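User: Hey, my collaborator sent me this sequence without any context and asked if I could get a structure. I don't really work with proteins. Can you help?
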Amino acid sequence: MNGEGISRTIEPRMSLADFLRDGLQLTGTHLGCEMGACGACLVLMNGVPVHACLVLAAQADGEVVETIEGLNERDVITDLQEAFFDRNALQCGFCTTGMVVNAHALLESAEKPNRDEIRDAISGNYCRCTGYEAIVDAIENVANNRAKHLQASADQK
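Assistant: No problem. I've predicted the 3D structure and written it out in structure-token form, which is a compact way to encode the shape of the chain:
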């Protein structure tokens, strides 16, 4: 979990989301619908976003699980967090952690996604406050800035 091995005895029916929140006090993983529809509980399992409310904690045994806290500790989402703030892409904040986890995964797999690709990637995240455009703007801005940085690094070599 977040780069650290964890061993605990758990109830077989405990969800990964409940384990993270109640067992490990990693409360950045939010519980919304508990049916995999809202995306508030997204975490990365082996680098892929999964709904922690639909995964049993026992299924994560031996897998690499990373939460929003782990991404933050690794300092790989600072630019996303700043862009969400700058673009006012967060209001109540309930969906934000899932959105950021999903955006991070997208930007890891696609160097410079276009707006349609961004919309598709976050289509499983429900937000009641922002209307999504600011979220798409924030992710696009980070994608563009990262692409410029990569290009500048390549040009210097």
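In plain terms: The radius of gyration is 16 Å. You can pass these tokens on to your collaborator as they are.
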